[in-house]
Structures are given as C-alpha cells and as structure tokens.
Amino acid sequence: MTPIGHLTSSAVVAGSTGMLKPKEVFLALAWYIFFLIVFGILKANIAPGMWGMHVYDTFSDVPFYLLVIIWMRARPRRQLALALGIGNLILPAYSHLFDKMFLWFMDRLPEGMFRPHNILHSPMAGLVLCTLCTPLLCWLMKRQDRLAIWGALMIGYLLHITVDTITYDYPIYWLWPFSDYHTTFITAFQQPDAVSQWLGNPYFVASPPVRNNPQGYIMYSSEVLLDLLLGAFYTMIVAFRHIANKPEHAPRLVPTPDSPGSSDA
Known about the structure:
Elements: H1 3-16, H2 22-45, H3 51-71, H4 76-94, H5 97-103, H6 123-141, H7 146-167, E1 202-207, E2 217-220, H8 221-244
Antiparallel strand pairs: 1-2
Helix pairs in contact: 1-2, 1-3, 1-4, 1-8, 2-3, 3-4, 4-6, 4-7, 6-7
C-alpha cells in the first residue's frame, strides 16, 4: 500500500478506537478523495512514471509530518493517534533502508529473511521495533503510560503489514523468524479463473522492475477499494452511533379519571 493509503487507513482505525473524533477522520477521508481526484487527472494526462510516487508520497508526508510537529505535545488522544500513525507510516516504511543496505553487497534479494518487500515486515520485528521506540516517544510526548503508547505503535505496525498483505504483490512473512511461511492475498485476484481480476490489476505503475524492486513500484486497484470501503464502513459506524445515542421521547400520558390531577365531569 502506498503512504497515502496507509495514512487513510490509520485515520479510520484511530477514529474507530476513539483516538480521533469523527470530524477529524472525515477530514482525512476528504483529503484522500481529493488526492484521488488530483491523481486521476494527472494520470489521464501524463505518462506513467516516478512522478506518481512523488505525488502520493507528498500527499502523505506533508500532512503527517505536520501532525508530528503539532500533536507531539497535544491532548492524550491525539498523541495516541500520532503513535498509531508512527507505527504505521514510519517504523515499517523506513526499515526499507535495511533492504537497500543489503543491496550494496548483493545483486539480488534471496528468499528468507532478506526479501524483496522488507526485512522487517513481520509481527516479531514490529514487536521489537515498537518496544525499542516506546521510551523515546514517551519522552518526546512527556507521557508516563508507556503501555498505551506501545499498544498504539503495535496497532499501527500490524495495520501496515495487514493491508500490505491484502493490497500488495510482495509476500509478508507473518511467522518469521519461526517459519518462512509467507503470503499475499492479492494473488487470489490474479488467477485466470478469478471473477474480480481487476482488483489484482495495477491502478498505476510508477516504474518497471528495477534492481532494488524486482516488481516495480505499483499501486493496485485493491488499495483504492480497501481505503474507500474503510471510509464507508466508518461512516456507517458514526451514523449508527448517532442513531443509537439519539434520546427517546417519553410517550405522552393521557390523564384518566382515577389519575392524580384529574377532575370528575
């Protein structure tokens, strides 16, 4: 999933857990829809290329790092939402540097621990990274409840590798280092007999296969659908909460001859 997709999914999950208010989540969803409109216009008029990566990276990085600056000392719920975003967008994403370092010495990435998608895209690596980063983040936020920050980081990290499993063509090693089992759901849509093959088709190809990315930089149609479905599902949750919390009007009592305050004719 692209960074703007991760940003959108983070906002929806943070809103569903009460870290963000509905208006904040809807603002994030509106930003994503605005991105799709801008990206669609550019895509229709410009040939595919690396410019696509710069566009969806910019749409993600500018608002997110602005929030990092503003919300680092904000109210507690926003700090938790920020921690979730850091666990989703920063820790898994920047660990790609380990792949690049390995490519300095090797021509290709073999199967196993060093793989095309990411060395650290696994729950166990997320557990270690989030544990190491929790004290620093608590110090920056001036918070004492490390468990809450660690939990938000872990939710974000697991969210990242979960949506990558659904919307990306690189396998995720969920059981590493205990097993080399890896999977990706998108291949189910790429089978010859699949009904919804369009979900496995690229929405945009930023580059063909390159040395440090054997399958190229691709945004799949399933990513766009998943983020829009998450937004629609969250909207349904907010609507249901509004209906459920709406106060009920007590039925109006009609006085009877025997009731207090009534008078005989």
